[in-house]
Amino acid sequence: MQTLEYLGHGLSVAVQWHNLLFAFIGVLIGTAVGVLPGIGPMSGVALLIPVTASMTAGLGPEQAAISSIILLAGVYYGAMYGGSTTSILLNTPGESSSVVTTLDGYQMARQGRAGAALAIAAIGSFAAGLVSLIGLIFLAGPLSELAIKFGPAEYFSLMVLGLAAVSGLAGKSMTKALIMTVFGLLLASIGIDNVSGVARFTYDNPYLYSGLEFLTIAVGLFALGEVFKTILEKEQTDGTLAKITRVMPTKQDLKDSAAPIARGSLLGFFIGVLPGAGATMASFFSYIMEKKLSKNRDKFGQGAIEGVAAPESANNAAAGGAMIPLLTLGIPGSGTTAILMGALIMYNVQPGPLLFQDHPQVAWGLIASMFIGNIMLLILNMPLVKVFAKIIETPPKYLIPLIVAISVFGVYAVQYTTFDLLLLIGCGVAGYFLAKNDYPLAPLVLGLVLGPMIENNMRRALTISNGDFMIFLHKPISAVFIAAAVLWLVVPMLLRLRGKKVLVNEEG
């Protein structure tokens, strides 16, 4: 009953007119971000952080945090909706979690059933959004109560597990992912040490005394990095855009899709809760599961509606599931949730077990707004799917100046220093070259966000144990987290050495 009471309070926050507007803008931009090939949810969320900071300038600190996170979360799950549009109409996935949708979605479009495929993707995404929200509502309270009992040793080990989970499955090379994690932790150590007062890696530059600004790094790496890639590699989308005729699915389509949507939603939610797994894995696993369960496996790859319903449900459910470790434990499980966490910290709201006690308006307001956002997405996607399809044809000559302008003006409006603008350009160039050479960016961002918290908790744990590092193994929960972190790194490595294929999280 207490949970429903909190949810009621959250709903009263989410239905305030300005929060409804922020949710609408978030899901609208999110759908557009998902539709545009190349711009993933990470770039979209990073790009909009400075914009939300400017939009909420007149609001109180907590109100500004609520409105901003409602908009940014809307971009995140809106992008999951939009990603299917290009997969189905153009055979080009808008983001990595929609790759598997191309297999059957594009075949359906070629058979003149693009409208049915898009409608089932929207209905499946809506159902999955509801399933993940119900899971979030009922798991958030017990998990945060459990996490309150954690000491600094348990927290340190849990964060190490978070880093290991993302590094173990991000990108094609684990070595490169680990290099990026360490690089992120090193960047997080720049600035004046809070305990000793010693300046670290500042080289007497006053701009570095407070450390590197997360916002500048995230916008540079993801948004400007993508701009440099588009300019230098002159990417062009090949293929013909399929025409949409009838949008509403038939009764048989709905009947065939019901069970895959239910299975995909549940599987996606539980995969999303696991740190490092992400929406890409959820969509792949749900597709494989449906194919194995099907009595007629040959139709997969030939335009089976189950091949669209299951992965699209799974990737949306995973996006909702990924919010659980972020909100209850303060551990982001993917690159996008790491950026969302950085945005919350910018507003002095610390995600984690105390979030539900210290900032219940933010936590429950966000959860309730996700329910409203999902309804908005269903209403937007069904009748306006033809309009969103037109966004695919937006030429880069209009898109690139827009992204550059939002990045530069957005960062300057928040930071007010030319140093950050130079850092922004530097990060953009670094982001392009790192991504080009398969160095995943998500572990870097995660290291940057978690670095100060890892350091603080390690210090506190070592103070309690008089400098004895064995405290991390003597505490049972901490030892379990450390063992899980080691397994998360060792198992994929052993599988690769034995020549087995390891599915990586492309979002990383």
Automatic annotation (TrEMBL):
Residues 20-446 form the DUF112 domain. The keyword Flavoprotein does not apply. The chain crosses the membrane at residues 20-52, 64-83, 116-141, 177-195, 207-225, 266-289, 326-349, 361-380, 400-433, 439-456, 477-495. Signal peptide: none annotated. Keywords: Membrane, Transmembrane, Transmembrane helix. It comes from the Bacteria. InterPro entries: DUF112_TM. This is Tripartite tricarboxylate transporter permease.
